[in-house]
Every structure is written in structure tokens, then in C-alpha cells.
Amino acid sequence: MSQFFQIHPDNPQGRLINHSVDIIRKGGVVVYPTDCAYALGCHIGDKTAVKRIRRIRRLDEKHNFTLVCRDLSELGTYARVDNTTFRLLKAYTPGAYTFILKASSEVPRRLLHPKRRTIGLRIPDHNITRDLLAGLGEPLMSTSLIMPGDDFPLTDPYDIRNSLEHDVDLVIDGGYCGMQATTVVNLTDDIPVVMRVGVGDPRPFE
Questions:
Q1: pTM for the whole structure
Q2: What pLDDT digit, counting tens, does each position of 174-189 carry?
Q3: Measured by CB atoms within 10 angstroms of the end CB, which terminus of the chain is less buried, N or C?
Q4: Range of the domain at 61
């Protein structure tokens, strides 16, 4: 049965953040809040946890996961960006965007797009997520908490616990955080391409 932590979205309790980080490091699958919606996350290097997330969401091997990063310096470890792209990222992070970028050699092969060697990266504007990432010292491997057959992410932490208490190790209740996905922007070529419109304003990239 999963644990259930109520963490304040503005002033996260350090003790609960540390406990959450320990669960992730030990291979746990966690539900956590972001600036868009609740997400599923696990340690970047844990193959078993990734398989569990695929099973929960019934994802095939072609599904692209996202690396959720603390800041641009961390993002730069996992993606290859030129100066122009870096300035663009700096202007619009943290925020409700997922950026498709050319992956560096640091990204595990199983997380890459199978043909294009690209990776989705994002830097959320949410205190709980930021504190989790600071405690981990590395990105979270993540995907939106959209259950099979649904069009939108689950939003109520208590409903999430009831639905997934035997499938995940921890549900973090950070209050309501929305039900829309991020705006996805492909930055692998010279001209940005908006691939999905979500919470983030797409106009700067159109």
C-alpha cells in the first residue's frame, strides 16, 4: 500500500521532502504535483520503476518519457543546446513547457526516441517539485498521470490514492495543481515547432 504525504505547496516540509527522496532513491514510483498537473516519477536509472510506470499507464516501448530537471545547468547535462537555444530556454524556464531537444550521451538509451535520439526535458515552476529535485541532485524520469482511456490527468490526490494505492509507493498531496498538460515545443531544428498546446503560452514559439 502506498504512503500518502500532505506537503504544503508553498512551504514544503523538509522532513517529508527528504522521506520522499529516500523512497525515489530506493526504486519507488511516486505521484507528485507540478505546475500543470500530477505526474508519475521515478529514479532516472531504475529500469524496474520505469517498467512499473509503463504498466500503470499501459505505455508501449515507443512512448517518450520526460526528464524533469531542477534548472538549466542540469538540463545542459542531458541535452545538446547551442547558444540561441540556451537563451530561449532561459527566457521560458521554469514554466509549463516540455522542450524536445537533442539528447546527450548521459541520457539512458531506453528513454530516448528510438529513431531520432531526442529527449523531452522540462523545468517546472512548483516548489514541491523543485525541492524534490534539489534533494535528489538529478532529474526525475517522468510522465503525466493520465490513466488508460482518459483524456486528462487525475487531479484529486485522494482519488489518486484510491486508484493507485497498490501500484505506486507514494502519493504526494500538494493540493490542486490543474488538469492540463504542458505545451510541447520541438527545439531540435533551427525553427521552433509547437507540437502540443497546453498550459504554457505557445505564441513565443509560433
A1: 0.91
A2: 998 888 889 999 999 9
A3: N
A4: 3-205
